[in-house]
Design a protein that fits this description.
- The chain is mainly alpha-helical and 217 residues long.
- It has helices spanning 7-28, 37-49, 57-88, 97-110, 114-117, 124-134, 139-170, 175-200, 202-216.
- The radius of gyration is 18 Å and the shape is elongated.
């Protein structure tokens, strides 16, 4: 979720093609790692049930799926072509070598499934396809996992939002009244995954504790 931005109004304003651009950017452009893909997909499905996007839920899901797959493929091609130069690049506001390292650790632990699992992990989602390109992962293998991950993430979260909207309507619940609570729940779920990973990792906990201790002192 982008601070100070109303997610529902943002989606209504940018429409389906704006959503496709955001999903593509988060999946394949390094600058897109800060974009709220999970929340936007869920909210898009929720709003699609209300007809707010002007297209059917099937069309919304297909278009966002295509954007996700295209984004990861672009990230792969970028990593394969620019990989060596990335490691020579200095850390900046938008790029840290630690992002690539996180993606590499995912590959070490999960192999090709990283392309699928990374979809549900912010930051790693953006850098995993780049890491696959840098590591010269077989493209046919990458594409197969890319399609599977894109379907589970883009189609799955979009339809989840749609069915939540349908659930509310079937019980006569005013969707507009509770939409912000639903979106808040989606944000919490989105943040929970990387937070749980952070707290499980001993080194990450130590670094976090050290930073908090410095702030207190």
């Amino acid at each position: 979720m982008i601070p100070g931005v109303d997610t529902t109004e943002l989606i209504r304003a940018i429409g389906i093609f704006g959503l496709m651009a955001i999903v593509f950017a988060e999946s394949g452009i390094l600058l897109g790692f800060f974009l709220p893909g999970d929340t936007l997909l869920f909210t898009a499905g929720f709003l699609a049930h209300q007809g707010a996007l002007g297209v059917s839920i099937e069309m919304v899901a297909v278009l966002l799926f295509l954007a996700a797959v295209a984004g990861d493929s672009f990230g792969y091609a970028f990593g394969r072509r620019m990989g060596p130069r990335l490691f020579k690049k200095k850390d900046s506001i938008f790029f840290h070598h630690s992002y690539i390292e996180r993606a590499e650790k995912f590959y070490e632990k999960y192999g090709g499934l990283t392309v699928v699992l990374a979809r549900f992990t912010p930051v790693v989602r953006t850098f995993a396809p780049v890491g696959a390109g840098i590591g010269h992962m077989n493209y046919k293998k990458f594409l197969a996992f890319n399609i599977l991950g894109g379907a589970l993430w883009a189609v799955g979260l979009t339809y989840l939002g749609y069915f939540v909207g349908a659930y509310f309507e079937a019980r006569g619940i005013n969707i507009e009244k509770y939409i912000y609570l639903v979106i808040l729940a989606a944000v919490v779920i989105t943040v929970a995954s990387p937070l749980a990973h952070l707290l499980r990792n001993k080194d990450s906990r130590s670094k976090l504790w050290a930073k908090l201790s410095r702030k207190k002192s």
